[in-house]
Each structure stands twice: as structure tokens, then as C-alpha cells.
Amino acid sequence: MITAEHKMEYYQALLDKKSEYEGIFYVGVKTTGVFCRPTCPARKPKYENCEFYETAQEALLASFRPCQRCRPLSHPNHVSPVVQKLVEAVETYPEKRWKEQDFDELDIDASTARRQFKKRFGMTFVEYARARRMGLAFKQIRSGHAVIDAQLSSGYESGSGFRDAFSRIMGAAPAKSADSRILRAAWIDTRLGPMVAIADEEALYLLEFVDRRGLEREVERLRQRTKSAIIPGVTAPIRSIEQELTAYFDGSLSVFTTPLHLIGSPFQKSVWAQLVQIPPGETRSYSGLAGALGKPKAFRAVAQANGANQLALVIPCHRVINASGDLGGYGGGLTRKSWLLQHEKQFLSNQRQH
């Protein structure tokens, strides 16, 4: 994880075009939609318009495309002609799903492409192409979502374009090996906007708002950690959480019972266990949680574990605020966080009246 201190260090390296930072970070420029190497000759963006990534794959998943000036994925001094040719092919048709015959048409051996990409970028060519495709799909979802924000108060209605983009994100062909795992992903419309639910037949793995920043990286990380193919579909846990979300937003449910599959370190799981114990209508501070865990100085680690939660609402990270009383951060946005806390306070008030 890139800290605030590293971001300032990387930004200064970008301004100074320090070659020693080549391969250490990439910078995504929000105003242009491209990502660059530290030594890019282009005019330098303002700090607030920069997002920093440790790998090219992370930048691609965040919907940034390679800069045409510094060529972060195909710079002549760093990569072979095979890699350059494939990167250019992906940029020509970024939504294309690559098959063996496509390599033949370019007169490139698929195994050579896989090996060279893995050595240079830490990911195979297919992973690169998928990351680029996922980034584009999430960008489409976010662009459309911004247009209909005003409709959230009266109920979210998703368009077919969003669902098409969603299918492109999740549409991964299952691996051929007999022991491969398949996770299903479903789009769930809620009062506060659409959410993505990912589960197998036994438990829920992920529940997030589709416009959460970094969601594409969360999905890819989940795919890699579980060694799973994630494809559109519905399972019993997904049906369960959809029903519970409806009841939650209607104000008739406050505790979720859908089975969960938690992926995290022992410390992260201990923090999430504390989150579940926060009653609806109440909040805790990061330092308060750290104290409850018997590690009063670990409030920064608690905050990081809170942010790593992949099960929004179910594990109520929105109930954690700053010690000052300020809302603090929230992956789904502070407007949603404020609404959720008020909604739960109203639920608690109604329960007391009855």
C-alpha cells in the first residue's frame, strides 16, 4: 500500500524526472486518463490530479491507459519488439478477448508472449489484456453512474449499458483444471446505488458499491487469492444477501446472517470481528477499536484493516469514525456513510419506541 509520505516522494521524483524510480511506481493522471513512467517528458500534472501505483496492472485496472509519450509498457529501451507489438495491438482493440488464433495472426508464439510479459511486468499478456478491459468497463459504469446520481433518492434503475459493462468485467472463462473454483458475481440494485456481490454456493466473498474506487483491483485480488474464475451468476448466498439488503434499506433488519467467507490476516479478521459487534445506531473510533483489541497504539493498522474490508454493510466499517467526531473515510463515499449512520439511528429509535 502506498502511504501519503510515499505519494509526496513519488510526486517529487516525477517533477525531477528521476530515473532511479523507474519500475518503482507509475502515475495515473486523472485529467488525461493516462498513466506514465516517472521520467515522462510530458507537462507535469498537479499533485491532486495524480494517483500512484506500484505496478502497471494496478494502473490498468484503475482504467488508465498507457501514455503515448513515455510508453510505460512498450518503451523501446525496456521491452522486446514482441511486447511492443502486443501492447499496441491491445490499445487498438482494448475490449478484445484474446485467443490462440489471434497470436497466430500476429505471427507471435503465445508461450513467448506469456513468458516475456511475465518477466517484464509481473503479469501474463492475457492478464494485461484483461486488466485493460476491466478498467474500461469500470470507467463506463462510473461515467454512467454519475449521470443518474440524482435518481438515487427515488430508487436506482440501472440501464442495460451498465449490465453489459458488468458482464465484461466478470466474464472470465472457467479454468480447465478439474479442481478450479468458480465464484459467481451478481449485480444488486439498492436504494443507494448498485452493488456487486460475489459468492460461491456456500458463502459471500465480496459486497461492494460498484462505484467504489479500487473495486476493480479488489475483484482481481480476490480472483488471484482464491484462484477462481469469476463469472456472472446467482448462488444461495447472493439470493440471501439481496433479500437482507432489501430488508435493511426498508428499515426492518439490522443484523445480517448470510454466511461469509473472510479473506484476510488474523489481525484484519480480529478488527472485522470488532466491527460486527458495534450495535446499529452507534459508532466507534479507530483508537477505540485498537484499545478494545488490547493494542491501543495500533489505531493506524486498525484503520487500514477497516479499509480492507470487502463486505460493505455486512461488516459495518461505516460505523467507525474519527475520534474528533468527523466521519473519516469510507470506500463508498462520505455521503453514503452519513446516510447509513442516520438510517441506523432511525432504526434504533423505532426499535426503542416499540
UniProtKB/TrEMBL annotation:
Biological process (GO), any one: methylation
SUPFAM superfamilies: Ada DNA repair protein, N-terminal domain (N-Ada 10), Methylated DNA-protein cysteine methyltransferase domain, Methylated DNA-protein cysteine methyltransferase, C-terminal domain
Start and end residues of each HTH araC/xylS-type domain: 104-180
Catalytic activity: a 4-O-methyl-thymidine in DNA + L-cysteinyl-[protein] = a thymidine in DNA + S-methyl-L-cysteinyl-[protein]; a 6-O-methyl-2'-deoxyguanosine in DNA + L-cysteinyl-[protein] = S-methyl-L-cysteinyl-[protein] + a 2'-deoxyguanosine in DNA
MF term (GO), any: methyltransferase activity
Keywords carried by this UniProt record: Activator, DNA damage, DNA repair, Methyltransferase, Transferase
PANTHER family cross-referenced by the UniProt entry: METHYLATED-DNA--PROTEIN-CYSTEINE METHYLTRANSFERASE
Designated name of the protein: 6-O-methylguanine DNA methyltransferase
Organism, as annotated: Paenibacillus cineris
